[in-house]
Design a protein that fits this description.
By secondary structure, the chain is α/β, with parallel strands linked by helices. The protein folds into three domains: 61 residues, Nucleic acid-binding proteins (OB fold (Dihydrolipoamide Acetyltransferase, E2P), Beta Barrel), CATH 2.40.50.140; 140 residues, OB fold (Dihydrolipoamide Acetyltransferase, E2P); 166 residues, Rossmann fold, CATH 3.40.50.150. Helices cover 24% and strands 31% of the residues. The chain contains ten helices and 24 strands. The strands form four sheets. Strands 7, 17, 18, 19, 20, 21, 22, 23 and 24 form a nine-stranded mixed beta sheet that branches. Strands 10-9-8-11-12-13-14 form a seven-stranded mixed beta sheet, with helices on one face. The chain has a six-stranded mixed beta sheet with strand order 1-5-6-4-3-2, with no helix packed on it. α8 runs parallel beside α9. The radius of gyration is 23 Å and the shape is globular. It binds S-adenosyl-L-homocysteine (SAH). The site of S-adenosyl-L-homocysteine has 18 residues, from α6, β18 and α8. It comes from Lactobacillus helsingborgensis.
Length: 450
Amino acid sequence: MEKNQIIKLEITDLSYEAMGVAHYEGMTVFVNNALPGETVEAKILKVKKHFAFAKIEQIIKESPDRVNIKLNQWVQTGLASLAHVKYDKQLEFKRNQVVNLLQKAHLDDVKVGETLPSPEETGYRNKAQVPVREVKGQLEIGFFRKHSHDLVPLTNFFTTDPEIDRVLVAVRDILRQYHVPAYDEIHNQGEVRYLDIRRSKATGEIMVILVCLHKDFPQLPKVAETIKQIAGVTSLVLNYNPKKTNVILGKVDYLIFGKPQITDQIGDVKFKISPESFFQINSLQTPRLYDLAIKKADLQPDDIVIDAYSGIGTIGLSVAKHVKSVRGIESVSDAVKDANNNAKLNSISNAKYVTGKAEEVMPRWAAKGIKADVIFVDPPRKGLTPEFIEAAVKTSPKKIVYISCNPATMIRDLQEFMNEGYTFNQIDPVDMFPQTPHVEAVTVLERARK
Ligand code: SAH
C-alpha cells in the first residue's frame, strides 16, 4: 500500500474518533467521514506499519445512517466530526463506545443505559473558542482542519448558540475594520489569537474574551468602544497569552469593560462564572446530567458530601440544601472563588470550596480523619489518580458518583475502586456534545464491604 493509491474499501466500524474503519491486505485503514456499511473508493493519504489513513474519493454504497449536511467543513474540521451521522445513530455510537470498553475490561455484566439525548442537537454550546488567523491576506475566524493548523474560515459554527455566532462575526468585522493583525503562530507575531465567547441562555449576558499576544495594542480603545455597541455584550476581557504555545488561554485577564463575570443558572441555583472557570457547555443538558447523578447518589439530610473537581461548585451547590454539608476541591483558584461566592449568592452556608489538586487535598483530608457519605467526582479526560482513589476510599463513603468525559479512564478508575471493595452495575451515557464523538457518562459505586 502506498500514498495516493486508490482502493475500494468496505467500512466495517467507526473508530472512537469517528473515522470509518476498513481492513485491506492485513492493514487497518481509517477513512475520514466514512460510515459502517458503506463501500467507498478511497485515496490513501498516509501509510504506517500496521495502519493507514485515507479519504473518500467516491461513495459507492451509501449508509442509510448518513445525513447529507449543508457544510462539509463541520465534519472536516474537528468541530463536528459526527455531523454526517443521524442523531439516533450518534447516540448508539456513544453507547457502543462504553459497551466496547467494558468488554475489553472483561466487565460484560455491567449494564449500559441508552444514551440520554441532548434537548438541542445543534446550537447547544454556550461557549466558543475560535482561532483567528490570516487566510489569503484577510483576518478570518474558523476552525482548524483535523490534525492540522490550517484554518478553515467559518461564520456558522453549527454546535454553538447562534447568538454567539452572531457576536463572533461582528467581532471579526471590527478587528478587520481597525486592521488588527491576526496571530501568526509560526513567527509568534501579530495580535489576536482566539476569540472566546460565552453566553448565558438564562440571562442573555455575553462575555467576549480577546486572547492576545500583547497586554495592549494601539487599536484596543476603538475596538473596545465598537464591541460595546454589539447587542447583548456585557463584558470584554483581554486575555494575555504571550507564549508560543497551543494552549488557548494565557494566565492573566484584563477586564476592558463591563462585568467581571457572567451569570448563568442551573435549576434554581444561580452561578457567576469568571473567564478562567470551567462551566458545562451544554446549558440545557447539564441539569439533566446533574439530576441523573444526584438521583444515583440517593442523598440523605445528614450526608456529608465531597464535590471533587468542582469547577464553580455547580454540583455541590445544587445539592447543598438537601444535605448536612458540602466540601469542594478544585485546582483553578478563580473557579474556587466563584464557587464560594456562588454559595453566598444562593444563601448557602454549608458549602466550602478549597483550591488544590484533588490528588493532594484528598489524602490530607483522609489523614485528618475526615469522613464523607457521598463523593462526586468529575475529573478532566485523564481521570483520577491512584492517590486520589486510595484517599477517597479512606473517607469511607457509602457512594461515589463518577461523572466522566472519557469512558476509557473512567473504566480504568472504576476497576481500581473495585479492588478497594466498591461495586457498580450500570453506566449511563449522556450526550453533552451532539455532532461530536465525545462521550459523557455517569455511574455510581457502592461500598460492598467494610
Ligand atoms: N464539576 C464541574 C467541573 C467539571 S470539569 C462541573 O460540572 O461544572 C473538571 C474540573 O476539574 C475543572 O474545573 C478543572 O479546572 C478541574 N481540575 C482539573 N485538574 C484538577 C486536579 N488535579 N484537581 C482538582 N481539580 C482539577
